[in-house]
């Protein structure tokens, strides 16, 4: 057994010495084609020559020449790989996605591989949506489009110069782009069913359609096209057609190269996993019947990801490449004339799809959004310039300003390039402010949270804490171990109450407001009676209620008719509204109203009113008894805005007038209203727009009121008002009247005094409002704590 193993080892060593070149082939991976032979047990050089070449003598010589095995005899080791063909005429240097090939003299087609060698009379066939590139020995390249069939003729005779020239090819169908090698000194021949092309062109396009019509487009150099014994010379930027069995057509100029819209480079940002759609647009070309657009991953346009034929008659010349993944792409477009001749390609347009990588912020289809700030980078953006809201910015990008911003990305050094725009939205973070009374002051704790409620780390340059109503805030905010911020607030004095009112702002945007009263047990006696410091700005204490009162005619007063400012506490009012005339005060034309309204929450106020109108005699005549007409109402309003100086409210009230009133006034009346008010230092403005409806009747009245107030002192307000009542139902003519007046209100402690005088005018002004009338008001707001308006 040992002896047998030693013999086999010696034989193997001898084979390594005698057939070293052949053994080296065994170390290389076996190609997918049939240009090699694997030695079987019992094979000799003669048997392999007969098996492969059909003749032992000539075949053995070829075998030795191809493998350089040295002088015989040889002992072939099973498994050794021997070359049985010389260097191929060409190789397949690109395949997408599947391409078939066939050996000369064979019937079977098999799937080709990248790098596969091609010899004389081998065939290559691209299928639908496939492509291939064939590179010859001298680096001449053939680029095959889909559904193309090519036969490689190779070099029949040995070339005399050092650079081996490529032989001819036969195009049976489909299209080829031919690129002649730089060192090639002779033309390349392309045989087609209807013609033969001898091209000295570095850029040539040939094609054979289903009717075997041959087309030739020359973009560089020149080419001779032969058919039926006649030749035509096709110069640069010209083309010709050859119908099978006919002479070549006269060369004609090719369409010009299209020009891209938006420059030759574009940048796109990928915001999700669905890819990016890139719109490729170009300017029209004269005499173009259609256009061919190609987008590929390589500059030689082998690895194409998008291709489309676009009719020239379309309104917009464009093609959209869908769902592009991150990477670099190259695009070109050619015009095709009515004869089907392909024109010169446009300049190559580079498209870069880049992924956005965020450290802070959320990426969505509409851009990037986040609280507090955005931090992100664009992968591979070294050659780009960034502009934020029109101004240059750095990369990576950081955006802190609250609001919506526009980021533009531009290829550096290409001013005509179309910028890629990205929308950036920064919202204020959530800010929680907690106050805790401590020894007559407040300890203030501030926490800054993101959209998910997680604590953010500072510093927060945009965060400000502002005191209202005389509240003073100690600065700066001090960071604590748990990430919160701490400060101390000294309350102000308002209406005899010690009040701390704080507002948190992010930049100029209010994000949180807190109001708290100092517990009475913590208020020193001296502090409770201490007047406010001179020069302290406080909010107006006086309630800004309507000046003009209810109409004097048959209409009833709906409710307290609030302005844009909510009451500070529960307010009880007695309003007396007599008429004024040449004979003095006329109580019979007036009314007396008892009204109550107050705050039930931070945003909601409710009210009720009972009105009494004297001046009616029951039974008639001098012996009749006086009667009082009664009406009652309920009202509510909701504050819609949070701005400290601007208020918008939605109000609703319902009133019921008794049978003692005139017919047009008695019954139920509902009135929705929209109220708005603005306060600027010592001035206040308000308006009320309401629509009074009577259920069950097709009649309504529009009431529009406008008021302006001047507050020279916190407890005194001077005002003027204008009111209008208009019939809002076009079916029946109704009342139209106006009133204007002036008045004043004074607050003394918990009491309020008011007086006003008005005049009615307009078509029905006298009937609705009376001539002259006045109003006296006595109010008391001693119930409930005073709250900011």
Structure write-up:
- The longest helix has 17 residues, at 2-18.
- With 789 residues, this protein is mostly beta strands.
- Mean pLDDT is 81; it is low at 1-33, 157-164, 523-541 and 616-624.
- The chain is built from 6 helices and 56 strands.
- The strands form 8 sheets. The chain has a 17-stranded mixed beta sheet that branches. The chain has a 12-stranded antiparallel barrel with strand order 45-46-47-48-49-50-51-52-53-54-55-56.
- Helices cover 7% and strands 51% of the residues.
Distance between the termini: 112 Å
**Silhouette:** elongated
- Helix-residue proportion: under 10%
Write the CATH homologous superfamily of the largest domain.
monomeric porin ompg
Largest sheet: 17 strands, mixed
What would you call the structural class?
A: mainly beta
Summary tags:
single chain, 789 residues, mainly beta, Membrane-bound Lytic Murein Transglycosylase D, Chain A, Jelly Rolls, Immunoglobulin-like, 17-stranded mixed β-sheet, twelve-stranded antiparallel barrel, 6 helices, elongated
Summed up:
The chain is mainly β and 789 residues long. The protein is 7% helix and 51% strand. It has five domains: 82 residues, Membrane-bound Lytic Murein Transglycosylase D, Chain A; 163 residues, Jelly Rolls; 88 residues, Sandwich (Immunoglobulin-like); 100 residues, Immunoglobulin-like (Sandwich); 208 residues, Porin.
């Amino acid at each position: 057994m040992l002896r047998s193993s030693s013999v086999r080892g010696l034989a193997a060593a001898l084979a390594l010495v005698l057939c070293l070149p052949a053994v080296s082939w065994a170390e290389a991976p076996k190609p997918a084609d049939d240009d090699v032979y694997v030695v079987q047990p019992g094979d000799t050089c003669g048997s392999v020559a007969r098996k492969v070449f059909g003749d032992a003598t000539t075949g053995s010589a070829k075998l030795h020449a191809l493998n350089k095995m040295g002088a015989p005899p040889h002992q072939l080791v099973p498994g050794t790989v021997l070359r049985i063909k010389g260097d191929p005429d060409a190789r397949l240097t690109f395949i997408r996605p599947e391409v078939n090939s066939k050996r000369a003299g064979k019937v079977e087609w098999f799937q080709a591989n990248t790098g596969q060698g091609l010899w004389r009379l081998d065939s290559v066939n691209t299928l639908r949506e496939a492509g291939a590139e064939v590179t010859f020995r001298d680096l001449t390249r053939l680029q095959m489009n889909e559904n193309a069939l090519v036969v490689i003729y190779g070099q029949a005779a040995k070339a005399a110069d050092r650079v081996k020239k490529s032989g001819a090819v036969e195009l049976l169908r489909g299209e080829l782009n031919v690129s002649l090698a730089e060192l090639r000194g002779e033309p390349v021949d392309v045989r087609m069913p209807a013609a033969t092309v001898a091209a000295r062109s570095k850029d040539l396009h040939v094609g054979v359609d289903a009717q075997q019509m041959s087309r030739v487009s020359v973009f560089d150099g020149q080419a001779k096209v032969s058919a039926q014994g006649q030749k035509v010379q096709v110069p640069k930027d010209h083309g010709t057609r050859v119908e099978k069995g006919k002479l070549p057509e006269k060369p004609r100029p090719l369409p010009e190269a299209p020009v891209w819209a938006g420059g030759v480079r574009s940048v796109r940002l990928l915001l999700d996993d669905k890819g990016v759609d890139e719109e490729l647009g170009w300017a029209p070309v004269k005499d173009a019947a259609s256009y061919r657009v190609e987008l590929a991953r390589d500059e030689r346009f082998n690895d194409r990801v998008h291709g489309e034929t676009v009719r020239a008659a379309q309104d917009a010349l464009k093609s959209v490449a869908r769902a592009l993944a991150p990477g670099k792409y190259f695009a070109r477009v050619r015009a095709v004339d009515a004869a089907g001749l392909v024109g010169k390609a446009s300049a190559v347009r580079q498209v870069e799809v880049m992924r956005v990588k965020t450290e802070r912020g959320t990426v969505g289809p509409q851009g990037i959004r986040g609280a507090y700030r955005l931090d992100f980078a664009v992968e591979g953006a070294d050659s780009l310039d960034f502009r934020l809201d029109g101004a240059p910015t750095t990369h990576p990008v950081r955006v802190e300003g609250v609001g919506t911003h526009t980021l533009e990305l531009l290829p550096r050094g290409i001013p005509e390039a179309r910028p890629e725009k990205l929308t950036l939205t920064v919202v204020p973070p959530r800010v929680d402010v907690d106050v805790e009374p401590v020894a007559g002051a407040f300890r203030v704790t501030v926490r800054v949270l993101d959209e998910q409620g997680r604590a953010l780390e500072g510093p927060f340059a945009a965060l400000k804490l502002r005191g209202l109503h005389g509240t003073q805030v100690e600065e700066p905010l001090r960071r604590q171990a748990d990430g919160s911020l701490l400060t101390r607030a000294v309350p102000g004095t308002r209406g005899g109450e010690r009040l701390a009112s704080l507002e948190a702002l992010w930049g100029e945007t209010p994000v949180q407001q807190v109001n708290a009263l100092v517990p009475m047990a913590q208020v020193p006696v001296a502090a409770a009676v201490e007047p406010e410091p001179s020069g302290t700005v406080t909010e107006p204490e006086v309630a800004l209620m309507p000046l003009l009162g209810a109409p004097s005619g048959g209409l009833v007063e709906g409710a307290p008719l609030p302005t844009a400012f909510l009451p500070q506490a529960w307010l009880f009012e007695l309003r007396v509204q007599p008429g004024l005339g040449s004979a003095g005060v006329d109580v019979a034309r007036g009314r007396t109203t008892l009204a109550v309204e107050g705050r039930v929450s931070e945003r909601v106020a409710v009210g009720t009113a009972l009105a009494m109108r004297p001046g009616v005699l029951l039974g008639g005549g001098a012996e009749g008894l006086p009667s009082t007409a009664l009406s009652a109402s309920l009202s509510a309003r909701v504050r819609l805005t949070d701005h400290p100086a601007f208020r918008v409210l939605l109000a609703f009230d319902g009133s019921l007038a008794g049978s003692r009133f005139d017919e047009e006034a008695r019954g139920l009346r509902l009135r929705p209203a929209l109220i708005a008010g603005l306060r600027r230092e010592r001035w206040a403005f308000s308006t009320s727009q309401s629509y009074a409806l009577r259920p069950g009747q097709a009649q309504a009245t529009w009431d529009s009121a406008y008021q302006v107030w001047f507050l020279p002192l916190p407890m005194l307000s001077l005002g003027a008002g204008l009111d209008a009542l208009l019939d809002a139902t076009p079916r029946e003519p109704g009342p139209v009247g106006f009133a204007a007046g002036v008045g004043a209100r004074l607050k003394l402690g918990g009491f309020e005094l008011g007086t006003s005088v008005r005049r009615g005018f307009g078509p029905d002004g006298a009937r609705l409002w009376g001539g002259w009338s006045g109003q006296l008001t006595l109010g008391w707001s001693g119930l409930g704590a005073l709250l900011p308006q």
